[in-house]
Each structure stands twice: as structure tokens, then as C-alpha cells.
Amino acid sequence: MATTLPSATLQHHSVANPQQNATNNAETEIVYVEESLPNHSSAVENKEKNKEENNDENNDEDEKSTTNKRYMPLLILNYVLLFVGSLSASLLSKYYFVHRGSSKWVSTWVQSGGFPLLLFPIFLPVLLKSTKRKPFSDFNQKMFLFSILVGLMLGFNNLLISWGVAYLPVSTSALLLSTQLVFTLILSSLIVKQKITFTNLNCVILITISSIILALDSSHEKPLGLTNKNYFIGFSCTIGASLLFALYLPVMEKIYQRVNCYQMVMEMQLIMEIAATVLATVGMACDGGFSDMKKEAERVFDKGTAVYWVTILSTVVTWQCCFMGTAGMVFLTSSLNGGICSTALLSINVLGGVVVYKDAFGGFKAVSTVLCIWGFCSYVFGMYIKMKKNKVGRKNNNNGPSTELIPRRNSGGIS
Description:
Layout: H1 5-16, H2 18-61, H3 71-98, H4 104-109, H5 119-127, H6 141-167, H7 170-177, H8 180-191, H9 198-217, H10 228-256, H11 262-287, H12 289-300, H13 305-332, H14 335-357, H15 363-399
Pfam family, one: PUNUT
Family: Belongs to the purine permeases (TC 2.A.7.14) family.
Membrane topology: Multi-pass membrane protein
């Protein structure tokens, strides 16, 4: 009896306090979880850090990503290039024609002859060691062929514009060229599946109406002696140029979908401009354009030979800036955005003529300018709202669901 009492007492003590044992087990598990919390927290932090580093690395590789640190500076730079290039090229072209310049081949050649300037954005990042990528390292035969074909299309487009401007009054050519925005909206929706929203449709309508009003106000600018044959040639060439440029923009956006750096965009642009320049040079050589250029500089241009060549070189530079800005806008945003900016600048160029050449600025031009600015600003605001929503969405995705650490329960514990 005496020998069984201690055992019975222990058994009674163990059975009498099952709740206490379960509590002790739970406390032990809580202590274990608390001890493992720093390690788990460190693992979560390391995982998030690695995720952010991977995102940053991917964004550095893809410069058209809105989260890339180079995206906004590149976007602003290309807006400036397009604005300054288009406005300056328009004013210099008018200066050329005002002082008796009239060669269609000259006005074609200067639009692409500045291709050597593209060597700066291609090789400058390498010289400054801001990139490890070697120029033309990602080029393949297919991309090279695409660049040549698009360049020939661009050169033909430049020729059509020159012939259209030569045979049509400014009002009619401006009106016909403004139709490229509508063509761009249609073709971009077919080629790159551009969504037609209220924002971009509203912008297209307002800027197109702005160009129509501008053309109607300039209807008195019809040149004397314009025959029906020349009018038909100019009309057909301008419509063709409008269609080709509208096709050029979404085709380039489609190609740029496989491109992730601005340097490569400039490389493709260089090949395109070389192809366009070769086409213009061959045409000038066959039609005697180079001899006409020399005669025009020495005998026709009323400001002298030196001013003539300064005008030509300046026009070459400004046209190159314009095309660089257009290519950059298509790469960073969309073909529709590039078309909107190009068409909106038609009205801005009119304001440049008012300031520089003291052109008349009546009610029609004022209404046209207001509509143009309204349409463009509404589109930019729509882009800003879209980017802001995308940024919020990315933040929510990166944060992910919250993790709660719950103490594990022992099978012997209470439920």
C-alpha cells in the first residue's frame, strides 16, 4: 500500500491538471514562435528586398516602363525635340520659300539628310559609361531589313509631302495633312490594338476641327496660275503622304514592342534615315537636283549663297530633331500620341508664323489655337490619370496580402 501511494499520487496529479499541462504546452509553442519571429521577419524583408532589386533591374533594362528612372527625363526630352524641331523646321522652310527657294528635291533631302546627328545619342551613353550595352549589339537581320523598308517608306513620304506643298496652297495642304490623325487612330486600332477611349477620341475630334478651321481661314492663299492637273497631283500626293505617315506610326510602335532601350530606337532611326536619304539622293541625281541646288544658291535665293547654305543646314538639323522626337514619343507612349503631337503642332506652327513673320492673327486662328490646346491638354491629362492609376495598382500588387503569425496548437491542447 505504501509502495503504491507515490505512483497513485503522481498519476492523480497528472490527471487532475490536464488543463495546466495544455496551457504549459501552448505557452511553450508561443515562446517557440516568438523566438522564430525575428528569423521569419528577416526572411520576409529579404524577400521583399530581392523583389524590389529585381524590379529595379528589369526597369533599368526596359526604358519604356513608366517605373524606370529614365522614363520621365526621356519623355520630356522627346517632347522638347518634337516641339522645337517641328516649329523650327516649319519656320525655316517658310524662310526658304519666302526668299525664292523652290526645289522639291531640296525640301525632300533636308528631311532625312541629318542622320549623322543620330550618332550622338547612340554612342554618347557608351562614352559616358552610362550603359554596358554595345551599339547595334541586339540587331538581327530581320530588324535590319524592317528598318530599311520603313526608311524607304519614310523617304517616299517625304517626297510626297514636298510635291504636295509645291503644288497646293498652304491651307489645303494643312487641311489634308491633318487627316493623318484620323487615319492614325484607325490604323493603330487595327495594327497595335489601340483602345479607342473618350479621351483620345475627344482629342482627335478637337484637333481635326482645329486644323479645318485653320485651313478655312487660309483659303485666300491659293497660288496664282494653279492648274487643275497640278492641283490633282498635289492633292493626291498630300493624301498619300498623310496615309503613309499614319501607317508609319503604328508600324513603328509594333516594332518597338520588342525594343526595350532608347539607344536601340535611335539605331533603328539611323538606318531608316540613311535609307530615306539614299532614296532622295538617287532621285536628285537622276533629276539633276544637285545642279539645281547649286544654281538656286548662286542665282535664285535672294539672301546670298552663305545664307542659303546656313538655311539648308539649319533645316536639316531641325528636321532631324523633329523625327527623333516623333520616334521617341512612339517608343515611350504610343503611335496615337505621336500623331496627336504632330497634328497639334500644325496650329502651334501658325503661332510661330505670327510671332516671327508677323502673319495676321484673326478670330479663326484664335479659335483654332484654343481648340488645339484644349484637345492636346485633355489628352495629356488623360495620360496622367492613366499613369497614376497604373502606379497605384502596382503598389497594391507589390504590397501583397498581409501575413499573420498564429501560435500553433498542440494536439493535446484545448480547442
